[in-house]
Write a structure and sequence with these properties.
3 strands, 27% strand, Ribosomal Protein L30, Chain: A, alpha+beta, ribonucleoprotein, single chain, Large ribosomal subunit protein uL30, Ribosomal_uL30_bac-type, 59 residues, globular
Length: 59
């Protein structure tokens, strides 16, 4: 499986509740925070839901 680094690049102030919960599920709470994830279909879906708030890089 491929590993990716997900970085939150925009604030979660004023976004939909579901997107806030998705960021929390990815382990992101603050702008600039990074988390490493294995790229599974579930993680791909979460990243796709908040793609305007995060940056994804291959690890």
């Amino acid at each position: 499986m491929e590993t990716v680094i997900v970085t939150q690049i925009k604030s979660n102030i004023g976004i939909k509740k579901g997107q806030k919960l998705t960021l929390a599920a990815l382990g992101l709470r603050k702008t600039g925070q990074q988390r490493k994830h294995t790229l599974t279909p579930q993680v791909k879906g979460m990243i796709n839901d908040v793609q305007h708030l995060v940056r994804v890089e291959k690890a």
